Amino acid sequence: MNFPSNICALNEEIIVEQLLRSHDPDGRWLDSEMLLQEVETILSFVLQNNVSMPLMTENCLTNIEVFDSKETLPYTISRISIQMLCPCIGENEIQKRRMLLFELLKGYRWDTKAMLVLGALAAVYGGLFLPSHLAICEPVAASIATLNQLPIERTKFRPWFESLSLLVKAMVAVTKCIIKFERLPFKQAKLDSNLVGETLSNIYLATYRVVKSALACLQQIPYFKQIHEATESRKAAGELSTESKRAAGELSSLGYQLLNIHNRLNKQVEECSTRTEEEINQRLRNINMGTHQDNQEILHLLFSHQDNMPLQQYSRQIAITELKEKVILLLLSKPPVEPLFFLLQQLYDHPSNTNTEQNYEIIWIPIPSSQKWTNKEKEIFDFYSNSLPWISVRQPWLMNSKVLNFLRTEWHYGDDEAMVVVIDTNGKVVNMNAMDMVLIWGVKAYPFSVSREDELWEEDNEWSMQLLLDGIHPAFETWVKFLIQMSKIFILFDQIVMRLFLNSTNQVKEGREICIFGSENLDWVDEFVSLARKIQNLGFQIELIYLSKRGRDERTIAMEENSILISPTVQQLFWLRLESIERSKLKRIESSKSDRVIEEVTKLLDFDYGKHKGWAVIGKGSAAAIVDGGKLIERMRRIVRWGEYASELGFTEAIEMAAEKPCEQTHTVVVPFEEASKMRVVTCEKCKRPMKRFVGYQ
């Protein structure tokens, strides 16, 4: 492209100086790319021929928010349209109108200035030409077009429409370049100042040219109507008026000027983009090398955004500086499912979370199924980000593609799983996936490093009910019920679903024992529950929990008051916890060494429901034992036969006694009355079973 003459260069310098004087961005921001998609669809529809129905757009203008602005998007576009439609006579008056528009748009970024002006053009031309466009198949539209003095037959105006289409395409192309440049994360990549400065100068001029061209299009509307009247009066001659040729020529000239600007600007923006991506890639590869003073550098690198508020908690925008001095848990996942609700409960509402000041935060990075976010995925994200207490990326569809690729390739994120990457207060990645340790220990796992996980297993390496059930309690149910009802994507939960988990710790202190059981054989379940009911009636303090790995059966299972039937979702969490325990332990034990926890967890996870009727885990707090379902039924029958003589035993103790082989002969033990009255139960010295009591007199 030839360089402009000295006079043109001087004029451009004056224009840039005027533009910069009227440029004072105040943080207002909107998704220019989304608005551009809508505008491009509207303009391409009203300017084309032989289309009987409008094209459907994926996005909706009502979903485009203007951040940090008191005005709605339609109101802003309406104000701009009014200014652009005011008649202007002469170049001086038109130039004043252009600068007035820039003064009106002073609080916006350059891409937003261009987009709002194009939005005004689409609104006016859409309303103006849509009736004319639909007039062939809609009589009402034809009447409206006639009342507005618009042509139904476009043949006579083909040169004008072709020139307008050329200009619109050029404006859209230039605006795309401006948007791309404004989205480059310059805070995370230091480029050559000369390259950036030269590109910025062209961005200013390109924005000016877009505003100038859009204004010219709207200023031609009165002439267009006059041309239509003149054309109608001399149809017989079949000639276009001089005004029509002049109008088409003006639009074509502006279109070619914009195309020339686009060719130059596009090369510069592409070079800036390439250099930015190269530097960000290099910094991402070295993300855990060297030392940092805090976590700010790495967070800014991951969450480069158009403004200083790339994060949000509910509807509140959050700056990265607010996360300084905190441990950061980066949650990478698709839209939340039940395990992630459990993760939240463990970290935000766990009984052991008594710290008044929370020194960690979860940042949710939602990863879409494909490279492009669908409208449905955006709706799901908006719902969950405004419902759950974690921090989330604001508008994650705007995240840098290089960062997302880094998460998939370098951090090995898979689409079918969630992972939690931990960054300490010094900006160092200390755990590539803390999901398991969080699901097992909750806030006790702070600061969530690999070394902390090793310490926790040294402290808590016993197979127990506490290890199986700790941390699941009613707050989880409250969250899940609310989300399920609102999103309508899961089934409803039982009203009593979490009762056991509320009292699991207190029940141990009170002496109540827990019996978790599972089976795919409903006949076995019925018999187990019947025997358990009889044992409870004998005075045994037992809490029953029914679990099934394949989910809850359709058949209703009768339970006593001191029993609970767990819903499918909570059952899933139980197995999820076991799987987390297994994965965490397998990373830390040697294959040659035996480990009680791994052995017991493996028994449950690999239980063969086809070979065995069922299973049960019995115990309290610090103890637990797995019993085969067939053997358990036999032992429970024996306890029922013992009746009240075994009622003072614990359920676990009674089950263990019932496993012993009974004595072959009946024998009697004489115990003094005073001594016997103090004994909880008298057991046989040989088989350890409870003995019937009789009072004898001498």
Automatic annotation (TrEMBL):
Sieve element occlusion N-terminal domain boundaries: 11-288
Limits of the Sieve element occlusion C-terminal domain: 503-698
Coiled-coil portions: none
InterPro entries referenced in this protein's UniProt entry, alphabetically: SEO_C, SEO_N, SEOA
Protein name, UniProt field: Protein SIEVE ELEMENT OCCLUSION C
Native species: Cardamine amara subsp. amara
Upper classification of the organism: Eukaryota, Viridiplantae, Streptophyta, Embryophyta, Tracheophyta
